[in-house]
């Protein structure tokens, strides 16, 4: 563990000689979707930009993504290869590079590429995009000097904040906890993790005050329990199920038979009613006797009578023929209804009406994360997906979240989820057309509905927002790219918390052997107004959120802190060893100790 960390510090100081005399930091990015594009843009926008950083982008031979993938960005060297193996990495100049980002949406493929990259450059800063947490943990064990990130986990807070009607995406998950920023009065005292700022005086906002109890803005843990005040209770209210047995029965009846069979039955009954009326007129009987004769003649075909008038005989024959068609139709309705009812129950289309819940459309990577975080906040969720085997279906069943299998672009599917009574509709499937139709249908059912819509095409999203007034969230790639770029630069920024004009960064910082903090107590990390320690973790152990400040820091430990930018820069200097002195120029003798 110590050797990769030492190499990381050496790379950060630029001490290692570069190939071909180029001393600029070199980063290799592998990906062919918008995430790769935005990561490249984020790298070019850092303090290393303006010709002081070298980026190589590895993309497939043919363009496979509809959106931008970075190959057209100026100042980026592009290597085209369909396979990420040792030969490709040699072509990309990975030997001697400072970092590698593997951004494909294939967890297993990214792990294979990481193993190939290790053969080319064993001492490499590695950033991998992964969704499966088990594979992510395994990759961290194989590559200690690596960052395994999920773009869905990073972008989900923005969707959750928009669904709850909050201004900033101040929710994030770390160390098995979902944390969020709130007013102290809006959370239970037991859920407060630390104080962030004193904002009682708008002209003098103090962040990370020495007295945490004075902070009115805090970082709290979402435990699924309702908060203490009326305001927070409204925001985190659980949905109420509207128990209406008659409505559920009518919904079950509507799903009992298909539309075509229903139309056929109604048409045939209309014909029978008309013929029965004509038959009654022919034999001159009362309406009750006419109803009796019509039903008996239609269902049994009995009572032939040659003495009847010709018109009555004709009506009786036609009614018998209609009866022959009615019996099979009744059988078809019963069989089809039983099958449809069982399918509707299995697909979740027969649901009690709810109010105050959040409907999430699409249980892919991002939808699954949004559903889980909303559940953590105690908000009742109803999920919709085309497939019963979607990525998040198993988690929905485990959390007890109702899953409706169907096309969210259809109005009846949205009605099954009680969209007209929900507090928000979050549409995050991977199909822009389905997303837009679902959003417009939801707004048609409830003009005041809060809609959070995911669209991949940025220009299209802005036009839709202006035309329909629908809240648009930018793409997941745009939201997650800064964190991937920070991890590639060895800056593990977990979240950014805006407080008035200040920006607080939640960062996980590793301690390198020989650093100033190596061997010092945890209490030395905190600096009022600059840095506050949130959690501490040792290699192979769980994150400790209540670590003893007297505990001694060891090399390889990871410190989770919330800090201002200046405080973070100072902390990074204390967690890495000082750079070695550069060798003297050729022909110049080394300086002698003045004591000699």
Automatic annotation (TrEMBL):
What InterPro entries does the entry give? NAD(P)-bd_dom_sf, RCK_C, RCK_C_sf, RCK_N, Trk_Ktr_HKT_K-transport
TM ranges are: 261-280, 317-339
Tell me which residues make up the RCK C-terminal domain. Answer: 494-577
What is the organism of origin for this protein?
Micromonospora antibiotica
| Region (Disordered), start-end ranges | 572-596
Q: Where is the composition biased (Pro residues)?
A: 576-587
- Pfam families this protein is in? TrkA_C, TrkA_N
Boundaries of each RCK N-terminal domain copy? 24-149, 355-476
Q: What is this protein called?
A: NAD-binding protein
Key words, A-Z? Membrane, Transmembrane, Transmembrane helix
**Superkingdom to which the source organism belongs:** Bacteria
């Amino acid at each position: 563990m110590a050797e990769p960390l030492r190499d990381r510090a050496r790379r950060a100081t630029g001490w290692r000689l570069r190939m071909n005399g180029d001393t600029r930091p070199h980063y290799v990015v592998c990906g062919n979707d918008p995430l790769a594009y935005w990561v490249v843009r984020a790298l070019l926008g850092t303090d290393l930009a303006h010709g002081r950083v070298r980026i190589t982008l590895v993309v497939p031979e043919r363009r496979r993504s509809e959106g931008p993938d970075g190959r057209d960005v100026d100042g980026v060297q592009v290597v085209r290869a369909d396979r990420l193996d040792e030969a490709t990495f040699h072509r990309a100049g990975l030997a001697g590079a400072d970092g590698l980002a593997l951004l494909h949406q294939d967890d297993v493929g990214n792990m294979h590429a990481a193993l190939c990259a290790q053969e080319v450059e064993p001492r490499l800063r590695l950033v991998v995009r992964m969704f499966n947490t088990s594979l992510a943990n395994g990759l961290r064990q194989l590559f200690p000097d690596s960052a395994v990130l999920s773009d869905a986990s990073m972008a989900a807070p923005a969707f959750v904040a928009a669904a709850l009607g909050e201004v900033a995406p101040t929710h994030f998950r770390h160390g098995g906890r979902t944390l969020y920023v709130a007013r102290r009065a809006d959370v239970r005292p037991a859920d407060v993790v630390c104080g962030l700022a004193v904002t009682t005086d708008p002209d003098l906002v103090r962040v990370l005050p020495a007295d945490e109890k004075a902070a009115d803005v805090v970082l709290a843990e979402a435990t699924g329990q309702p908060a203490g005040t009326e305001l927070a209770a409204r925001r985190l209210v659980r949905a109420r199920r509207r128990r209406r047995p008659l409505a559920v029965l009518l919904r079950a009846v509507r799903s009992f038979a298909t539309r075509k069979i229903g139309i056929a039955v109604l048409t045939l009954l209309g014909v029978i009613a008309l013929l029965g009326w004509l038959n009654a007129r022919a034999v001159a009987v009362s309406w009750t006797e006419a109803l009796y004769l019509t039903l008996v003649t239609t269902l049994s075909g009995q009572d032939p009578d040659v003495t009847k008038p010709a018109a009555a005989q004709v009506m009786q024959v036609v009614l018998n023929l209609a009866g022959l068609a009615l019996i099979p139709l009744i059988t078809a309705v019963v069989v089809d209804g039983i099958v449809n009812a069982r399918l509707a129950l299995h697909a979740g289309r027969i649901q009690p009406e709810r109010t105050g819940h959040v409907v999430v459309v699409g249980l892919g990577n991002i939808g699954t994360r949004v559903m889980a975080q909303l559940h953590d906040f105690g908000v009742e969720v109803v999920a919709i997906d085309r497939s019963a085997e979607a990525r998040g279906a198993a988690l929905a069943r485990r959390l007890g979240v109702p899953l409706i299998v169907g096309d969210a672009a259809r109005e009846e599917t949205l009605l099954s989820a009680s969209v007209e009574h929900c507090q928000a509709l979050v549409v995050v499937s991977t199909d822009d057309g389905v997303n837009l139709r679902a959003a417009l249908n939801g707004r048609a059912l409830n003009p005041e509905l809060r809609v959070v819509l995911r669209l991949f095409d940025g220009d299209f999203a802005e036009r839709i927002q202006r035309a329909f007034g629908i809240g648009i969230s930018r793409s997941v790639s745009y939201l997650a790219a800064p964190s991937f770029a920070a991890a590639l630069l060895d800056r593990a920024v977990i979240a950014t918390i805006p407080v008035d004009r200040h920006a607080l960064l939640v960062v996980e910082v590793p301690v390198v052997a020989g650093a100033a903090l190596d061997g010092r107590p945890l209490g030395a990390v905190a600096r009022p107004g600059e840095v506050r320690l949130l959690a501490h973790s040792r290699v192979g152990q769980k994150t400790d959120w209540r670590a003893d400040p007297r505990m001694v820091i060891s090399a390889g430990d990871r410190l989770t802190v919330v800090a201002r930018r200046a405080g973070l820069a100072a902390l990074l200097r204390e967690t890495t060893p000082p750079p070695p002195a550069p060798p003297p120029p050729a022909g110049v003798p080394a300086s002698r100790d003045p004591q000699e």
